[in-house]
Structure formats: C-alpha cells, structure tokens
C-alpha cells in the first residue's frame, strides 16, 4: 500500500471510531507531543449525497455533523482531521494522530492507538454480521394449482 | 396576515416555565437521559434525523427530549440548528452496494444471492402488547458463533441480478452537480435529483398517504419491493487540503428499490421501471413510500399519461411534503390576528347592516 492509501485508512478509521474510544487511547499523547493548532476544531455540516436508483446520478440526501481540525507538531509535520459528530477533542486528537503517523513515532501510534481502534471496529462489525446471519431466511413457495 | 403585538412578556415567561415543568413530568419518576432516548427510542431518533435533514443521533435525542416527544417540533429544532452550521462541502455519493446490511429483503427475488436477511424487524410479530416490557426487563441474549468472514458478506444490489436480461431500466450516472433545496428555493419543474431530495426529507405520513393512494388506483404503478436494505455506509469526501478523499464518517440508511410494471410508451419499450427511496436511519415505511411516490412522479419522463392523481402532480407533492413549512403556515393562524380580525368584523357588520336594510325595504314595499 502506498502512503496515500495508508493515510486514507487511518484518517477514515479515526473519523468513524467512537469519540470516547479515540480520546481514551490518546489521553497521554498531547502531554508527550507539543504542537500548534493551525485551525481550531470547528463543527460544520457535510451534505451527504446518494445515487438515483443506487447507481445513477447524485442527489442530496441531508447533512451530517462533522468536526475538523489542523495542527502542526513542533518538529514541523502537519496533521488534519475530519471526524463525524461534534466532539472537538476527538477532532484534535485525530489530527494529532494523523501528524504523528507521518513521523518516526508511527509504529508506536499504530500499535497503541490504531490497532485497538481497528480491533474494536472489527468486533462491532462481526457482532452485527452474526446477528444478521442468524436472521437469514429461506422462503419456500407453495405449489399453486389443483393437480 | 400576522401582525406584531406588544405585551404579554410575563405571561409568556410563565407559560414557558410551566412548559419546562410538564416536560419534566412527575419528579418522582427518573429523568430521561439523552443516551436512553438515543438507544431506546432509536426509530424516533431516526425519523427526526431524516426529516430534520441532519444526521446526528445525539442532537436528535436532545430535540426529542426538548419537544416532549412531539417529533415535528423536534424536527423543527433540528432544522433550525442545521442552518447555523457552516457547510464544509458535499460527500461523494454513498455506495449502497458496499453496505454492511442489517436487513436486506426482496419481495421479487426469492433466492437472491447473499440471502434474505430479516434483521431487527417488526414484520411477523403478532402486534400483541408485550407486558413483559412493562416489567423491568433483562438483556436479550446475543448469539455466539464463529467470527464471520466480513469480506464475503458484501451484498450486491438485487436489481443487478434481475437485470441480467435487460428487462429493467438502468439508472445511468452523470457528473452533474445535483441541485440543493437548502441553498436554492424549490423551482418547478424539478428534475429527479431535486424531487428525491425533497422526498427524502418529506413528512413520513404525507408520503405514506400518497404512496397508498397510488396502490389504491390513483396513478397505479404496480410496485413490488425489488430490494429493501438497511445498514451502515461510509461517507467519503474530497478534502482540498489533502488533495484526496477520505472517509469522514459512517451513517445508517434505508434504501428501497421498487420494480414497477410498465407497458411501454412512445419513447420506451415494455420493461420494468424503478422507483427509488433512500432515507437517513432505519425508516423503512418512509423509504418504500418514497420509492412509490418517486415512480409516480416520473410519468412525464417515461411518456405515461397524466391521470390527474395527486401523487403524479409534482407541484402538489413537492410543495406540500415538508412538515416544517406546513406546520409553520398552519400553526401561525393561532397567533394574534386581532387587527385583521377587527377589519373582518367591521366588514361583516357593514354587509349585514346593508342586507338587513334591504330586507326591511322589501318588507315595507310588500
């Protein structure tokens, strides 16, 4: 995987993870790493689009709340975040993780923060899948007619 | 016409204090938390998000609490909040074929690859009150099995299978930027993208009534549910400062595709046509209604006759579907109208005097 794919992956993971989970795992990060906030965490809306008929042209469905933040580590690396919801600390921590993932600290961040988040997500998805599979049904059609 | 009035501040404050008190109800009963509403009144939360046109379950729960469970009032609060948010941009269209389905059924294709998944549904329940819920309930059991293979669980759209013979119209993608009702006022005639935006935030009851009217024969279009699916989809947006797109969140949506009989017209061969519904949250009655109304509104594009049915009338449907517009106009008539009414009173009195005088003259002449 190239750098961009990796970055998309971790940014997406941080955006979709529960704010509480991200904040708990990142608790010590802002104490150990110094940074300057370039863009204060800001909450806004993103217009979600769908496709006509599932495959056709786009139409607007409605908005979703999103919070974004940008910051620069003292050593110069810039981190960005766009996370779902209105939690400003979530956005700040996600931007910090994004910055650190571009530095030699990446391996440690991967193990201590991203890996547990990925595991949690996989567990949640598996739980839904189990539930869904248990409700999978086979319908039998009755024979029609009189002979 | 509404005219400004002065005074009443004290009474209004007292009314709002009382409102706060009745909202809380009996203080001997524990207060509802937002988390309780979000988790246990989740379909009400979904409806408020869908018609409020803003996906944020915590805000919807707050709105429901504040409005004492009046969902249209809650939707009003969400719409008002929504206007205060800066717009960061628009997402790429969500790809519903990548959805992790909690529910996925087809009424037309029994043996659909990937299977029919009932999900957490009210279908097949007996609609008998469950008095076990009135008592303090325990937690339901969760099934334990081997970890499923998530990659193998992707469910393609049912329409793709049904369309192997080319008997169903296809929805082709274009790069057009869709019109946005929240930025430009509704202009008619509307294209399908604008109609769909209007319908997805429309009042569920209004859409249900219209959809039902098509089933009963007012512009009947013989709809079958080709597929109904509910689950989470990722939202992806292009981020200018990055120069590429990332996933910025994940939302639950309900999607309904109908297959409709179509005899063909001057422009189209006989084939199955489609109606489409896509709604925030788990709102399946609304998604099915939306698909039926969407199909009814397509009469012109498909070269069908206008039967004069309400569900076919774009102006009628799109102008009356929004419950916030509707309730705003409807409820304003209860606000002070004294000046107007004073003039109405005087008008009636003068007409009446004239009529009585005429009658007296007629009597005298006889």
- The share of residues in extended strands of chain A comes to 25-35%
What's the SSE pattern of chain B? HHHEHHEEEHHHEEEHHHH
Question: Tally of extended strands of chain B?
Answer: 7
**Whole-Å distance between the termini of chain B?**
44 Å
Shape summary of chain B: globular
Q: Are there runs of chain B of 5+ residues with pLDDT below 50, and where?
A: none
Number of helices of chain A: 5
Structural features:
heterodimer; A: 147 residues; alpha+beta; 3-stranded antiparallel sheet; 5 helices; elongated; B: 366 residues; 2 domains; 4-stranded antiparallel sheet; 12 helices; 7 strands; globular
Question: How are the SSEs placed, and which strands pair?
Answer:
The complex is a heterodimer of chains A (147) and B (366).
Chain A (H helix, E strand, L loop, with lengths): L2 H14 L2 H7 L3 H4 L2 E17 L6 E16 L4 E7 L3 H13 L5 H29 L1 E2 L10
Helix pairs in contact in A: 2-4
Chain B lengths: L8 H16 L9 H7 L1 H11 L1 E2 L1 H10 L4 H12 L4 E7 L6 E6 L10 E2 L40 H5 L29 H9 L3 H12 L7 E17 L4 E17 L12 E8 L3 H14 L16 H7 L2 H9 L6 H28 L1
Antiparallel strand pairs in B: 3-5, 5-6, 6-7
Helix pairs in contact in B: 2-4, 3-4, 3-5, 4-5, 7-9, 8-9
């Amino acid at each position: 995987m190239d750098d961009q794919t990796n970055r998309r992956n971790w940014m997406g993971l941080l955006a979709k993870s529960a704010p509480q989970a991200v904040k708990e795992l990142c608790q010590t990060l802002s104490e150990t790493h110094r940074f300057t906030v370039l863009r204060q965490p800001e909450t806004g809306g993103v217009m979600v689009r769908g496709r006509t008929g599932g495959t056709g042209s786009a139409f607007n469905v409605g908005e979703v709340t999103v919070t974004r933040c940008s910051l620069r580590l003292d050593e110069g690396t810039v981190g960005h975040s766009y996370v779902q919801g209105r939690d400003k600390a979530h956005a700040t921590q996600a931007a910090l993780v994004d910055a650190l993932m571009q530095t030699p600290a990446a391996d440690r961040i991967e193990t201590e923060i991203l890996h547990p988040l990925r595991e949690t997500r996989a567990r949640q998805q598996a739980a839904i899948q189990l539930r869904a599979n248990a409700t999978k049904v086979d319908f039998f059609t009755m024979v029609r007619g009189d002979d | 016409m509404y005219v400004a009035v002065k005074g009443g501040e004290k009474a209004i404050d007292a009314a709002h204090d009382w409102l706060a008190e009745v909202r809380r109800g009996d203080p001997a009963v524990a207060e509802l938390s937002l988390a309780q509403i979000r988790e246990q009144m989740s379909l009400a939360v979904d409806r408020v998000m869908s018609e409020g046109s803003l996906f944020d379950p915590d805000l919807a729960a707050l709105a429901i609490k504040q409005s004492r469970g009046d969902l249209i009032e809650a939707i009003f609060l969400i719409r008002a909040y929504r206007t205060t948010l800066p717009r960061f941009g628009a997402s790429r269209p969500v790809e519903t074929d990548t959805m992790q389905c909690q529910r996925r059924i087809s009424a037309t294709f029994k043996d659909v690859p990937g299977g029919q998944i009932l999900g957490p549904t009210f279908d097949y329940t007996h609609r008998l009150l469950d008095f076990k819920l009135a008592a303090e309930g325990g937690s339901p059991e969760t099934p334990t099995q081997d970890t499923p293979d998530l990659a193998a669980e992707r469910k393609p759209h049912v329409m793709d299978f049904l369309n192997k013979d080319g008997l169903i119209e296809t929805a082709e993608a274009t790069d057009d930027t869709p019109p946005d009702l929240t930025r430009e006022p509704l202009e008619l005639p509307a294209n399908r993208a604008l109609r769909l935006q209007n319908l997805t935030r429309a009042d569920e009851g209004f859409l249900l009534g219209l959809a039902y009217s098509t089933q009963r024969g007012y512009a009947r279009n013989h709809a079958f549910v080709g597929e109904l699916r509910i689950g989470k989809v990722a939202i992806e947006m292009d981020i200018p400062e990055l120069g590429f797109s990332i996933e910025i969140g994940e939302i639950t949506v309900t999607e309904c595709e109908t297959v409709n009989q179509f005899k063909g017209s001057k422009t189209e061969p006989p084939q199955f046509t489609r109606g489409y519904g896509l709604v925030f949250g788990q709102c399946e009655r609304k998604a099915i209604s939306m698909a039926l109304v969407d199909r009814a509104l397509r009469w012109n594009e498909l070269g069908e006759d206008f039967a004069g049915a309400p569900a076919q009338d774009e102006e009628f449907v799109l102008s009356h579907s929004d419950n916030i517009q509707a309730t705003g106009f409807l409820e304003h008539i209860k606000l002070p109208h004294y000046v107007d009414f004073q003039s109405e009173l005087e008008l009636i009195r003068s007409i009446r005097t004239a009529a009585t005088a005429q009658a007296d003259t007629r009597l005298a002449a006889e």
